[in-house]
């Protein structure tokens, strides 16, 4: 047998050493393998190695992978590709097959890890854990170069077997360490006596553990403390209630809360929500309602039903006495206005009183009986009568003053000198008093010229003119202003508040000066009632005033027709002096101050009276037939008191009286009359002829009956202008000289000389009278004729000049 074996060895060695006559290249071998594969002689897969010189089957590759994993326990696929010499793609593919067929292997992040490897790691971790009591999972994951979740899942499956510890919040602890921390949590929780947020407690325990463990300590997660705390609560080792997982209320505190609430509510019959919130009760209303179902919740308070009964009795007593009550004075001081309003709505007496209108609630806490309100209203109504009278009299108290006595009205008294020297530039008489010795004659002559300003002929009668319309009743007051008219006589809120303080002294005595509490609400409640009462009285007064309103308008239209026609007649005479600017200005201003002022005063006064009557304001009916004379201030006041556009037109009329031309005044007068619904009758030739004839006749009768020598001259001059120019001239003293001089060419020499002599004597008389008044001297009468006597002697000849009758001559 041995010899045969040796023979075979020699033959094999010879065959190996023998040189083949046929050699195949690597390419031929590759082609040969491909051909065999195509012919399915090789019916299994072959994998090329990286070098390309070797073939390996997938089964062999898997065997090598398994062998490598069994040897190392944890192998990277990249390392397997290097060791097997196969491309990484094939290694990954076969690795997935290997892992799927063996449940103890896992493919994680390009590595194949076996269960034995994790068991070895777990044993190492356990040894380390016993040494340091706690290990962070993140630290282990960093060392093993795997994810924390993978380490946690590996540790959880081996806790209690290979690893003796507890995994909580990313930390691995030993049982002894857990027991120690659990004892700390239990002690801290039992030491809490007030509600506390557990997060703050966990922070304190964390700082304590770090101080105990030093640099080796690991930060502990709050979830670990929370899990220990929850287990202690479940096992009833600590007593209390946990809300929202972190708000802990110990049982001892809850007992103290309950005792405090019971004691306070039983003693005071109320408790505030703020006090419960200070005790740590987050929802005090729900807490109290659950504990005391019979209680009544308010806005900031919780009360016992007995408090409603107490307040109800006080309110019922106040209503029965026709008085008022402030509920806050009955309730405890902690109650606010909102609480008072809520508790009032719960009182039976208030509910019944409001239904029967026997009470009124104001300012959320004030209850006023209907009798009290009516009493205050009746007193305010009386005050309103006084208030309405004061409003109605505000603009009309001094409207009926009479004009000043004109110079010459008293035949036994000489006219006083006038100070109206605006145009001539002289100063008032008081300023000239210190210089009366100097320039006496000049001042006297100036004064004499001024006194002639007031000596104008005013006809006492004129032809009556018919109105062209009868329906002119209230067009100057717009209906859109009705509310404004109502408020004219209705007192303001401040006025009512002041009267309430005087009528009800208790308001001020009890410190209720704060108007927002009761005074303003009560004033707002009473003001519409006062307005209604006022409107009713005004309607009644309007019914009474309707006839008077019609009479006022009728009389105004009648007077306006007469005065406006006279004004147009006088205006035509001003054309004679247009070539003399200075004299024209004097004549225009004189006409504005006399006839123009009279028309404006009459119009404003009657419009004001009509407006008051329409608004229901009492107006005394004047029995005096004298023309109304208003001061500039009164004119402005009345013009501004009118309503709407009429006020604007009236103010423009008043302002036009200060101008230098009568044209502006006439335009403003026409606008104001049109706005008030009145008609201004235009002067035509036929009517002018009639008026001139009537005026001449009336003026002639005045001249014939005139006994005052000074007053005679302007009337004579006016009559002469009527005869010569057929114009009604109204000339003041300052323009008398010019007016007389312009008659020179119209009169014969004798008549003109007579007129000039009379004019000179009149000026001399006025000058001497003014000088005697300033010096305090009497006029001498030593048998020498006085200037007045001289002037009286010339009167018959002057009258005969204009009247055309022979008059006896007086002593020269």
TrEMBL record:
Pfam families linked: E3_UFM1_ligase, UFL1, UFL1_C, WHD_UFL1_5th
All residue ranges annotated as the E3 UFM1-protein ligase 1-like N-terminal domain in the record: 4-288
One GO BP: response to endoplasmic reticulum stress
Biased segments, Basic and acidic residues type: 468-487
Region of interest (Disordered), ranges: 399-489
Gene Ontology CC terms, in alphabetical order: endoplasmic reticulum membrane
Domain E3 UFM1-protein ligase 1-like: 553-682
Keyword set, alphabetical order: Coiled coil, Transferase, Ubl conjugation pathway
Example GO molecular function: UFM1 ligase activity
Membrane-spanning residues: none
Sections of the chain in a coiled coil: 539-573
E3 UFM1-protein ligase-like C-terminal domain span: 688-801
PANTHER family, alphabetized: E3 UFM1-PROTEIN LIGASE 1
Family the entry assigns: Belongs to the UFL1 family.
Protein's recorded name: E3 UFM1-protein ligase 1 homolog
Phylogenetic classification of the source organism: Eukaryota, Viridiplantae, Streptophyta, Embryophyta, Tracheophyta
């Amino acid at each position: 047998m041995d010899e045969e074996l040796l023979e075979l060895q020699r033959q094999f060695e010879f065959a190996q050493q023998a040189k083949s006559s046929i050699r195949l290249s690597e390419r031929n071998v590759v082609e040969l393998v491909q051909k065999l594969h195509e012919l399915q002689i090789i019916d299994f897969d072959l994998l090329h190695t990286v070098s390309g010189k070797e073939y390996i089957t997938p089964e062999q590759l898997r065997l090598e992978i398994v062998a490598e994993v069994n040897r190392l326990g944890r192998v990277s696929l990249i390392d397997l590709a290097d060791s097997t010499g196969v491309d990484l793609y094939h290694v990954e593919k076969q690795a997935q097959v290997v892992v799927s067929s063996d449940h103890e292997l896992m493919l994680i992040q390009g590595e194949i890890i076996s269960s034995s490897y994790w068991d070895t790691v777990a044993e190492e971790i356990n040894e380390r854990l016993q040494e340091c009591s706690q290990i962070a999972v993140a630290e282990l994951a960093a060392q093993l170069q795997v994810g924390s979740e993978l380490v946690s899942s590996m540790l959880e499956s081996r806790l209690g077997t290979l690893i003796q510890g507890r995994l909580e919040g990313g930390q691995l602890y030993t049982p002894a360490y857990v027991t120690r921390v659990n004892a700390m949590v239990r002690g801290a929780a039992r030491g809490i006596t007030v509600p506390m947020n557990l997060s703050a407690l966990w922070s304190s325990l964390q700082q304590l553990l770090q101080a105990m463990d030093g640099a080796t300590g690991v930060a502990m997660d709050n979830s670990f403390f929370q899990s220990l705390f929850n287990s202690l609560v479940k096992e009833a080792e600590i007593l209390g209630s946990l809300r929202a997982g972190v708000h802990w209320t110990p049982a001892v505190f809850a007992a103290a809360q309950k005792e405090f609430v019971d004691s306070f509510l039983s003693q005071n019959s109320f408790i505030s929500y703020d006090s419960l919130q200070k005790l740590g009760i987050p929802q005090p209303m729900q807490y109290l309602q659950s504990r005391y179902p019979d209680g009544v919740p308010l806005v900031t308070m919780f009360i016992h039903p007995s408090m409603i009964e107490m307040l109800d009795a006080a309110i019922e007593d106040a209503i029965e006495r026709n008085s008022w009550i402030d509920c806050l004075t009955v309730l405890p001081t902690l109650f606010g206005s909102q609480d008072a309003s809520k508790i009032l709505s719960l009182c039976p007496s208030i509910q019944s009183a409001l239904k029967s209108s026997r009470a009124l609630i104001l300012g959320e806490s004030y209850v006023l009986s209907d009798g009290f309100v009516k009493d205050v209203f009746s007193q305010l109504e009386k005050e309103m009568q006084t208030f309405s009278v004061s409003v109605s009299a505000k603009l009309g108290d001094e409207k009926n003053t009479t004009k000043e006595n004109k110079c010459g009205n008293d035949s036994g008294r000489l006219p006083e000198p006038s100070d109206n020297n605006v145009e001539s530039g002289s100063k008032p008489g008081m300023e000239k008093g210190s210089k009366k010795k100097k320039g006496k004659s000049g001042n006297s002559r100036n004064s004499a010229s001024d006194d002639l300003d007031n000596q104008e002929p005013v006809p006492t009668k004129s032809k009556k003119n018919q109105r062209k319309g009868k329906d002119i009743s209230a067009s100057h007051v717009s209906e859109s202003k009705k509310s404004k008219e109502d408020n004219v006589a209705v007192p303001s809120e401040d006025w009512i508040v002041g009267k309430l303080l005087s009528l009800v002294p208790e308001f001020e005595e009890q410190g209720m000066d704060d108007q927002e509490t009761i005074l303003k609400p009560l004033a707002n409640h009473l003001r519409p009632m006062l307005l209604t009462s006022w409107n009713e009285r005004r309607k009644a007064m309007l019914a009474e005033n309707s006839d008077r309103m019609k009479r006022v308008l009728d009389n105004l239209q009648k007077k306006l027709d007469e005065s406006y026609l006279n004004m147009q007649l006088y205006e035509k005479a001003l054309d004679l002096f247009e070539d003399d600017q200075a004299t024209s200005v004097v004549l225009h201003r004189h006409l504005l101050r006399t006839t123009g002022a009279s028309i404006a005063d009459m119009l404003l006064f009657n419009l004001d009276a009509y407006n008051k009557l329409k608004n229901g304001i009492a107006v005394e009916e004047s029995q005096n037939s004298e023309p109304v004379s208003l001061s500039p201030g009164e004119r402005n006041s009345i013009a501004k008191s009118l309503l709407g556009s009429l006020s604007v037109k009236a103010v423009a009329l008043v302002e036009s009286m200060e101008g230098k031309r009568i044209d502006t005044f006439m335009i403003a007068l026409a606008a104001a009359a049109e706005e008030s619904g009145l008609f201004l009758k235009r002067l035509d030739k036929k009517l002018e002829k009639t008026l001139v004839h009537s005026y001449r006749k009336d003026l002639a009768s005045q001249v014939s009956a005139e006994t005052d020598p000074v007053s005679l001259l302007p009337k004579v001059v006016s009559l002469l202008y009527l005869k010569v120019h057929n114009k009604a001239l109204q000339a003041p003293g300052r323009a008398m000289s010019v007016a007389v001089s312009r008659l020179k060419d119209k009169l014969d020499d004798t008549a003109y000389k007579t007129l000039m002599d009379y004019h000179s004597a009149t000026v001399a008389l006025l000058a001497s009278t003014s000088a005697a008044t300033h010096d305090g001297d009497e006029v001498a009468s030593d048998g020498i004729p006085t200037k007045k006597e001289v002037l009286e002697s010339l009167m018959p000849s002057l009258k005969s000049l204009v009247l055309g009758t022979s008059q006896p001559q007086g002593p020269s």
